[in-house]
Every structure is written in structure tokens, then in C-alpha cells.
Amino acid sequence: MTSYGSAARRLTISTGGRMASNGLIRSMWELRVVCGRGTVSQGGVCWRLTGVEHCGGVMRGSSVALWCAAAVACAGAAWAEDEGIRGFAPERVEAQRTIEEMLIGSVRRDRLRSFHEGLSSEPSPAGTEADLRKIRWLSKSFGEMGLEVEEHWIDVYLARPVTGEVEIVRDGTGEVSVGLSVQEGPIEGDPYLTDEGLDIGWSAYSGSGEVVAGVVYANYGRRQDFEALREMGVDVRGKIVIARFGGNYRGYKAKFAEEHGAAGLIMYTDPKDSGYVRGLMYPDGGWATPEYIERGSVKTLDYVGDPLTPGVAATVGAEVERLDPEELALPRIPVQPIGWGAAHEILSRMEGRVVPEAWQGGLPMNYRVDGGDALRVRLKVEQDRRIMRTANVVAILPGAKHPDEWVVVGSHHDAWTHGAGDPNAGTMIVLELARMFSERVRSGQPVQRSMLFACWGAEEYGIIGSTEWVEEHAEHLGAHAVAYLNLDMAAMGPNFRASASPSLRALILEASKLVASAVDPERTVYEVWSEQSGGTPGVRVLGGGSDHVPFLMHAGIPSMAMGGGGSSGVSYHSAYDNLHWYRKVVGDDYKPAEMIARVAAVALSRLANADVPALETGAYTEVVQEQLRSLSKMAEERGLSLDPEALSGALDELRSAHTGFFASEVNDEVVMTPALIGAERAWVEGPEPVERPWYRNRFIASDRDSGYASWVLPQLRGAIESEDQTMLDEELDELRTVLERMARVLREAAAE
């Protein structure tokens, strides 16, 4: 019998090196204690036993004594049993722990820094010559690591800026009164701001056109903000709406403005949200200057990926039937972002009623809802929408035992500007992980499953590259993909955070217990994270705004994202997103990146090397039950009926099947791993969802009104939002079928 959830307890204590006169062991030493929690070692690994802890490579003599006492006490109390590592046979646990220690110790900050510099050397929007140069650089970098490299070239529908103009004009004459800036200017000490490759501030996929009109302020431009304007009696038809960034994805601001009849949209970053109200502005601090402009896509289709080929990969050379661009639901009104300095010129001239208190921003004036009859603004936007070429770069480390099973880690490579933060604070970690794992394989430590290290193209335009790759490899991914880890913008500060499918949450928590925190190297990531969370750390639900979306929400592959935040500033999608800002604000020691790389390495290693990947399918039960209670209250408020206990029987079945699966005597990995994969895929099987069918996963989909957030049990939520009891009942039946299918797959595998 092989149980993949436990291992025999072992105890080894060895010390090497000399005790210095001050009681510190500073030379070569190793104290290894395998006892419940794990191993104490150098290289940033942290282990705890009976309240005694050490992290790093320095130990006091008294600490050694305490460790030995703790080890003996632990061994005496429970020598025979050990938590082991979930998914690993007992005889493989010690070797896996050694691998994890080596991986943790092999992260190199100098390599992270070098990768970061190579990735952030020039602005690289998708489809440009700079984008092509970066693709070649990535392929070369992966190739030098000895990895197999595939370039997945795609022809996709993108856009490029031609003109963006915003002016205040004299009423009745049309003459320019004040011309407003649409691009950040130079700042002394920051050489990147004068790069000729920087575009103006722009919103990709904006409609082209010119309009002169009055102005209405719409707060964050959310659906509820436009409803509030209607209730105030403010008509936005034929007006230029001005809205601040935040609260929802910028594309929905454009969508809602157009739906309410606006002639154009201007967006800006308010100082209350990201400027001097928060702290010192760049370059004295890290917060938004008056010229800070957030670029970004405003595409809001019912699917992500190439706008012209939903559900089908737009691979170069493939015969693909494309949609007519004129029939796409892309914005038709002109949309332009500006800085808060330019916005102040408009907002300060508005003469209408004062806004509700919650709408007041950080500029030194009373914000007003409308501009009055005298204020007129001219907005002109011209963009070139066309099919352009880019590529995904995927490096492959073949698995020694299960080469067809894939563990994928990725981040995108395109950026609106230099991209030191978005995406390269994560992309550099993908490269470092590839280097680390490839070196371990060359040193004689093969991975059991294939690992894919991916750099996706055209994410900024709407998660395009990763979606096309998932659509291209849909059949293989559906049958053999174990998990996906997304590292977009991962190292933006020392405070660890994570989001994941329920089945991967335990893996992240366990990995975080083995790595020293960037906040306090004397404590683990888990301990600092717990303190900041006020209890057990919460691994959040994944949102709807990055490259995990096609893996999770379309293909049903369990996914996770991890990163660090907490730096005092913002550079998102602005010209300030460069190495000068990053090293001043986030830091130039690369400790956050080192921390994230270590946690990621442990998690990926366990997925790639486990006899049976520890996908905790039973964890869905708690999340589903909690969401049913929440949706039941929402349904009641709308006059609908949803019994929060309606799925209790199916949830109990799944919980029992999951427990029995990992306790079974089945030793056949060939049976067990496909069963776990099959249980996860149950969420995307069955009939297509009625609303937004591309989002096949019945567990999670992006929020249809915010974009960045997500809905758990989205079809139920959609039925409630639509106040459709019939749809609600039908979807409840579908969910019951999904849960029963998951339980059946696990039970049948355990019985073989």
C-alpha cells in the first residue's frame, strides 16, 4: 500500500563549521531536522519546531541547543508519523525536500536584475519592431539555458495610436483656449522618459473621431455611477464624459458611457486615488505626477483573445475564418486618457451642481457634475486598427516520467511602455525559474512532469497571446495540463499575496511556510502574511484581468497567481513604468523578486515531481457552499428563490470522494493523476453557459461589469442579475451535475 499523504518521521542532526567567539556559527553548517514541519537549512529556508525558529545562515550556539532539544522532544512524542508532503510516496519525501532546499538556495538576485534589465530596455507594445526584438531576445535567453524553445506566432487584431488631442475651446468660436497634454514630459534623473519609442497616452481600440461638446463628470464611470447621474436628472447624451480611473476596468467606463449616449470619454488618474494625497509624487516619492497617464485597452467583448477569432487560434499560416471588424462591439466613441493636471484644467472650469461627497476627488476644489453651458471641450482621437503579428515564447523542460503532463508558468512580455513593473516584475521571475530548474535537471535532478515557461504576447490588448495558445493546444491541455501559475507584475513589493483555484490554495500556503519573508528575513512568508491578514492568510479568488483567464475560465485548468505588493507608489501603464522608478520605489535589492521566485519554485516543484499532484478537489465544497449562501440573499432581494442548501447532498458526495481518493490503496499514478485532472475539467464539461459561452467554467468567470474582478458560480449570479427564476433553477441543476461528476470520477479511480 502506498499512501501519498504521509511519510515516516526521520531525524537527522548534523553540524559543521566552527563556533565563533561571539557564539555565532557563520561558516559551513547544516542543521537538519525532519519532524512534522520539515527541514532547517540555509538559503532562505525556514522551519519551526515547538516554537523555536531560525531563518538564514547564522545560528547562535544557544539556538543550536534549543533546536536539538526541540528535535528530541518532537521525536520522542511522535516518532512514527509525519505529515509528509501531500502527493508524494514516503520514500520520496526526503529527496523532494532536498530539491526544494536547493531550489530555494539557487535563486540569484544578480540574474533577476540582469533579466529585468534585458526585458525593460525599451518600450515594447505588441506588434511593434521593439516587440519583435524582445521575442528574439527571449528565445535566445531560454535557448542559452539548454531549453527547447517554441515561438507561437499569431496574426491578431490590434491597434496603434495616430492622434490624441484634448483642448478647452471658447464657446461659439471653436478657438483653442487651453491645449492639454497627452504625454508625460521629462524628469531630471530619469533617462527613460525621453525614449523616442514612448507613445502618447492612449486607450487601445478607442473609436476614431472628433467631437466638441460640454462635459459631465461621472466619478469612476461604473454602471452605478451612470445610474446615479440619471437619478440626478443629468443627461450625458451628446456630452463628453470625464471619469477617474479605478473602480472597474477602463473598458467598461467606455462601454457604459457609450450606452448612455455620450459623445466621447476622457479618463484620468485622480490624486486622491494615486497622487499626492497618498504620498510624495515621483521622483521625490513614487506617486502619480500631474502628467501621469494610464494607457490600456478598452476592449469589452464577451471573450478574451483575438477579437476576430473567438474560440479559434489565430496561428500564423492556419486557415482561420475571421469576423468582420466592423461588426465587433468595440468602442465607437473617441476615448482618451490624460493626467490629473490636465483634468484639473477641465474640472476647475465646471459650473454645475456639486457632486455627492463620495464622488469628491483629491484636487483642491469642489467637484461638479456638469460643466454648464459655457465649458466646451474638443476631443480628437485617431487610431489604426489592423491585423498585426506577435508571438508567444514557450520554453520546455521535458518531464522524465510523465512528459505529456504539463505544469505551466507564465507572464506576458508586451508592455505599453518599458514595463519594468507591468509585466517585467513577473516576467523576470519566469526566466529565473527556467534557469533554476534547467540547472537542476543538468545536475541530475530531473522533473517528473514537463514544465513550460511561457512569455505571452499581446496581453495588454485583452489577454490575446495566452488565449490563442490555449485555443491552439486545447485538446492536450484538457487531458494533460496539471496547473498554471501566473506571475504578471509579481515583484512589486515585499508583502506576499496570492490568488488561486480552491484546489491549489493549500499548496501555496505550504510553500509559503518554507521561505523567508522579504519583510522580515527572520520569519517565514506565511508568518508575516498571517500577521498582516489578522489570522490564517486568505488565498483570494482569481480575478479576470491577466493570462490565467484562458487557462482557468475557458479550459478549466486549476490556476494560481502570486506576487508581492506594498510599495508606496504607482507606475501602472504610464511612462514612469521603467527601471528608474522601479528601483527607487520598489527597491534595487530584488528581495521581493527573490521571495516570489522561491515560493513559486517550491510550488512548481511539488506539482512537477509529485507521484500524484496534490489538487485538493474537495476544497471546492466550502467555497461553493459559502457562495450559495451569499447568492441566496441576493436572490431573495430580487424576489427570486435559491435554497442555500440545495447542493448539500452533492457537496457531501464530493467531500467524501476526495477524502477516499487520497486514502485509497491505489498505487497507479497513471490512474490517479488523470482522475484529478478529469475532476477539475468537470467544471467546463456539459452544455455551454447561456451567457458568455466562451467562459465555460461554471465555477468562475470574470465579472461582466468590472472586468478585473470575477464571479464565483457565474451562471447562477447571471440568472439572479437578470431576475430569471427559470434560468436560476436550470443552472442549479447543472451545478449539481458538475459536482456529482467530480465525485464519480474520484470514486471510480479510487476503486480501480
Structural class: alpha/beta
CATH superfamily of the largest domain: Zn peptidases
Distance between the termini: 14 Å
Roughly how many Å is the radius of gyration?
A: 27 Å
> What is the approximate shape?
globular
Query: Main beta sheet, described?
Result: 9 strands, mixed
| Beta-strand residue fraction | 15-25%
Query: Would you tell me which CATH topology of the largest domain applies?
Result: Aminopeptidase
CATH architecture of the largest domain: 3-Layer(aba) Sandwich
The unreliable regions are 1-81
Q: Count all strands and give the number.
A: 21
Provide the residue-averaged pLDDT.
Answer: 90
Distinct helical segment count: 21
Highest CATH level, the class of the largest domain = Alpha Beta
| Count of the domains | 4
Helicity level = 25-40%
Tell me what the structure shows:
The protein is of the alpha/beta class and 752 residues long. It has four domains: 24-84, no CATH class; 107-156 and 387-609, Zn peptidases (Aminopeptidase, 3-Layer(aba) Sandwich); 158-386, 3-Layer(bba) Sandwich (Glucose Oxidase, domain 1); 617-751, Transferrin receptor-like, dimerisation domain (Transcription Elongation Factor S-II, Chain A, Up-down Bundle), CATH 1.20.930. The strands form six sheets. Strands 5, 6, 8, 14, 15, 16, 17, 18 and 19 form a nine-stranded mixed sheet that branches. The chain has a four-stranded parallel sheet with strand order 9-10-11-13. Helix 9 (424-442) links the parallel strand 15 (402-412) and strand 16 (449-456). Helix 2 (90-106) runs antiparallel to helix 16 (591-609) and helix 19 (669-681) packs antiparallel against helix 21. It is globular and about 85 Å long. The relative contact order is 0.12. Mean pLDDT is 90; it is low at 1-81.
